[in-house]
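Structure first, sequence second, as always.
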């Protein structure tokens, strides 16, 4: 404790012997002399008739976001404001070579520069930074801020669009005779400072010109000066190619490939409905991105065309399945369908039915003429099966008589009468003048048990033959409907593939640009 008192008693006189150090004496004297007589409400001009020459420059730091739905551009900007104030001129030699000072903005006159198309809730989004005042009376202020401005978004070419957002700056309460606003460098035209600009991930900045205009409003006779900064940006399309366009094309191609699946697989219709629901989901994504407007973007038009194509493919799939499962006992094939789906469309699509060869057009026309001549013939071909049936019965009876000789004369006479009856029946069927006259065979009871069994066998054979013919006709009829379904499936494949390709190519050709990285 004693040693501590001795040390303090020795050092205290030494510390008090040094002069007191004071910093910024000249700056304090300068600020006191200038600000004591300074009025921040007074415009910095010598004559009230003069206008303050205010220079403005915009330094763009970053485009934060462009909200297409609300049409608001958010950007990080530094404003560079320069003007002169004669009341703040001093001789640096009188103040220890002091060249400049920093003064808070509320202690000096400040121009009321505002962003006219501001969408910020506070309207003025600038931060009140200090003013830099030089000995020549030059005042500079660089207030930064996150500016939200309205921007008219044109979604016609979305997502291959290019937008131009305009930032309009001007004095709020001073007309041109009081504050003459002009651009730094060239007063009329210039460019935005992009020396510290950071690229945006969604938008590519293409150009940033600026210009100055003089406007006279209908409410006031005075002229006002406004400065416009144009930000032209292009949307980067790679994101939309990966997340919207490519999935849409892939889903549409799945709808096309659905026509290559056979109708018997059972999932043909389910595939089309699933694809339609997927496209509806992507369509909702596009509608959420765009602002509510009567204009439809080209991507929306493309999605609508693809959706219409897929919906039509579902309807065609239903028709294909209808053709596939038609049967002879419930549906008849009209002449029109037979000619179109079994003749002309297979010829156009180069399809060959199994067991047949592809005929040239000349042979198809010749075959049609032959059929017309057969229809015009006096002896219809429909009579031939009846005659052949009678002849088959006669031949069968003769063979039976040969293999099993009958000694009964009555049986021989009955077979002779049966042959005569067959001749009369043939003659009556060939007679077109008297279709109602028929020569009925004489009814005769079987003479013996053998003859009775023989006739029963022939009757059964005839019934079996008729049944086999009916089955063959039904099978051929069903195969014709199946072939018609195959032809319709091939037609839909060609039509919808062509439609999808044409729509995709038309969209890519119509857009002003495709890839923007």
């Amino acid at each position: 404790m004693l040693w501590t008192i001795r040390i303090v008693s020795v050092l205290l006189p030494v510390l008090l012997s040094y002069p007191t150090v004071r910093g910024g004496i000249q700056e304090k004297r300068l600020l006191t002399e200038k600000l004591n007589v300074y009025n921040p409400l007074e415009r910095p001009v010598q004559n009230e008739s003069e206008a303050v020459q205010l220079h403005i420059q915009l330094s763009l730091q970053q485009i934060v976001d462009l909200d297409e739905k609300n049409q608001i551009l958010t950007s990080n900007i530094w404003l560079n404001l320069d003007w002169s104030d004669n009341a703040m001129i001093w001789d640096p030699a009188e103040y220890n070579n002091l060249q400049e000072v920093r003064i808070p903005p509320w202690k000096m006159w400040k121009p009321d520069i505002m962003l006219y198309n501001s969408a910020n809730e506070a309207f003025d989004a600038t931060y009140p930074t200090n003013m830099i005042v030089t000995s020549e009376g030059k005042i500079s202020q660089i207030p930064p801020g996150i500016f939200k401005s309205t921007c008219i978004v044109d979604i016609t070419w979305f997502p291959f669009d290019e937008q131009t957002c305009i930032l309009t700056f001007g004095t709020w309460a001073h007309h041109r005779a009081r504050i003459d606003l002009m651009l730094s460098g060239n007063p009329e035209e210039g460019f935005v400072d992009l020396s510290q600009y950071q690229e945006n991930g969604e938008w590519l900045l293409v150009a940033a010109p600026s210009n100055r205009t003089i406007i006279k409003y209908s409410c006031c006779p005075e002229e006002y000066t406004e400065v416009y900064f144009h930000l032209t940006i292009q949307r980067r399309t790679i994101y939309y190619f990966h997340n919207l366009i490519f999935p849409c094309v892939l889903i549409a191609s799945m709808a096309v490939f659905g026509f290559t699946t056979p109708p018997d697989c059972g999932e043909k219709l389910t595939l089309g409905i699933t694809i339609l629901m997927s496209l509806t989901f992507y369509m909702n994504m596009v509608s959420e991105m765009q602002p509510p407007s009567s204009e439809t973007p080209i991507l929306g038009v493309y999605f609508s065309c693809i959706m219409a194509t897929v919906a039509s493919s579902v309807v065609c799939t239903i028709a294909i399945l209808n053709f596939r499962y038609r049967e002879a006992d419930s549906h008849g094939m009209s002449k029109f369908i037979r000619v179109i789906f079994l003749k002309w469309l297979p010829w156009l699509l180069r399809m060959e039915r199994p067991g047949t060869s592809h005929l040239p057009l000349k042979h198809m026309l010749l075959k049609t003429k032959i059929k017309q001549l057969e229809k015009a013939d006096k002896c219809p071909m429909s009579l031939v099966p009846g005659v052949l049936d009678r002849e088959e019965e006669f031949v069968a009876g003769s063979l039976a008589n040969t293999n099993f000789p009958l000694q009964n004369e009555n049986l021989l006479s009955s077979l002779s009468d049966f042959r005569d009856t067959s001749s009369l029946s043939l003659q009556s069927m060939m007679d077109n003048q008297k279709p109602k006259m028929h020569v009925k065979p004489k009814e005769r009871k079987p003479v013996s048990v053998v003859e009775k069994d023989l006739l029963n066998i022939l009757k059964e054979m005839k019934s079996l033959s008729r049944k086999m013919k009916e089955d063959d006709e039904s099978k051929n009829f069903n195969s014709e409907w199946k072939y018609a379904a195959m032809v319709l499936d091939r037609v839909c494949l060609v039509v919808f593939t062509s439609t999808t390709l044409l729509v995709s190519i038309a969209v890519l050709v119509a857009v002003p640009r495709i890839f923007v990285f």
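Margin note: The first helix runs from residue 2 to 17.
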